[in-house]
Fold this sequence. Notes:
This protein folds into two domains: about 10-20 and about 100-225, 3-Layer(aba) Sandwich (Rossmann fold); about 25-95, DNA polymerase, domain 1 (Orthogonal Bundle). It contains nine helices and six strands. It has helices spanning about 25-35, 40-55, 65-80, 85-95, 105-115, 125-135, 160-170, 185-190, 220-225, and strands at about 10-15, 120-125, 145-150, 175-180, 195-200, 215. Strands 3-2-1-4-5-6 form a six-stranded parallel β-sheet, sandwiched between helices. Helix 2 crosses helix 3. The relative contact order is 0.18. The mean pLDDT is about 95.
Amino acid sequence: xxxNHTLKPKVLFFDVNETLLDLTQxxxxxxxxxxxxxxxxxxxxxxxxxxxxxxxxxxxxxxxGHIGAAALQMVAANHGISVSEENARNVIxxxxxxxxxxxxxxxxxxxxxxxxYKLVAFTNSSTIGLKNQFENAGLTNFFDKSLSVEETxxxxxxxxxxxxxxxxxxxxxAECMLIAAHGWDVYGAMNAGFRTAxxxxxxxxxxxxxxxxxxxxxxxxxxxxxxxxYK
Length: 231
């Protein structure tokens, strides 16, 4: 995608789930908990995101994994399936912490490191959840910093979370770029003054009422091909 922005961002913030980590293998685990209905994974994920925002809007905070387990119980109940809280949490914790990276991710991150970019993981997942995800996916050493919104008590896309992320890295929002596979995350980052890049993973769309991101590409490798031209 052609753009007029050629100034190198000081910090690249990466969303984690779906952006870096592939949720495909979760279909079977979540599907098993939902009576074999693997096609319900997108509904479960959107329900989890919806209720993370509801929780924040109500001025509360619950771990992202607990919200994911509650969402699993809700989707199950709507399909006549009973899942206990304990079982739901076990399913979600195991599934979320054992996700592989998308095939191009490690090569793309390596290229960005070679180009001198500062890389930050920026996720709604808990601090310990992110640590386990990256250790299991072999991504830990690519990142200069890993940030969970847990410290803020508010999930993305609340404006405060992005401003907090920028302040943790001692940079201004305009010096940051968020790279994410979710239209809502990109919109939230732009609203906070971040530059943005959208990874158009299958099944993901930009929000038509939001401004257009600086970069749009089908995978992280193609985004990196643009970023390495920045000076």
